[in-house]
Amino acid sequence: MTDTPQLAHGYEISADPARIDAERVHHWLSTDAYWALGRTRDKQDQAIAGSLNFGVYDTASGAQAAYARVVTDEATFAWLCDVYVDPAVRGKGIGTALVGAVRDHLRPHGLRRVLLATADAHGVYEKIGFRPLDRPERWMALAFD
């Protein structure tokens, strides 16, 4: 799919870093996201400061409803990570719309690729155009314990 998914009525997406509710994002990720359980607030604040951040906000209350972070040089590569939708608003297509907006924001930069890792949301990302790596045997990782 290459069309931008429609965001549910009553929500808006913003890449304005001043709108990020860092406390809420930290709570979501450190207590409910399998990839970030136990992440410290300092570590999360560093991640936010060094990344391109996206939020979905309730237009009536202004409360943040979802989050996504991109680590990128804005020239050749990007890594989409920390995508999280508040459980109270899941099932409304907010995650799909958020990832579509991130894709559309990055497209004009001429990046060669955007990577992500997921254990359980392949369907969300496939709707936006993500596919498994063509040659995963070429990729390696350096993990610090």
Can you give a write-up of this model?
α1 (22-32) crosses α2 and α3 (94-106) crosses α4 (122-128). The protein has helices spanning 22-32, 41-49, 94-106, 122-128, and strands spanning 11-14, 52-58, 64-72, 77-85, 113-115. By secondary structure, it is of the alpha+beta class. A hairpin with a 5-residue loop joins β2 (52-58) and β3 (64-72).
> For the report, how would you describe the main beta sheet?
5 strands, mixed
Count of extended strands: 5
Q: Helix/strand-derived class?
A: alpha+beta
Name the helicity range. 25-40%
Strand order of the largest sheet: 1-2-3-4-5
Radius of gyration: 15 Å
Question: Features of this protein?
Answer:
145 residues; 5 strands; alpha+beta; globular; five-stranded mixed sheet; 4 helices
Overview in brief:
This protein is an alpha+beta fold and 145 residues long.
Write the layout of secondary structure elements.
Layout: E1 11-14, H1 22-32, H2 41-49, E2 52-58, E3 64-72, E4 77-85, H3 94-106, E5 113-115, H4 122-128
Parallel strand pairs: 4-5
Antiparallel strand pairs: 1-2, 2-3, 3-4
Helix pairs in contact: 1-2, 3-4
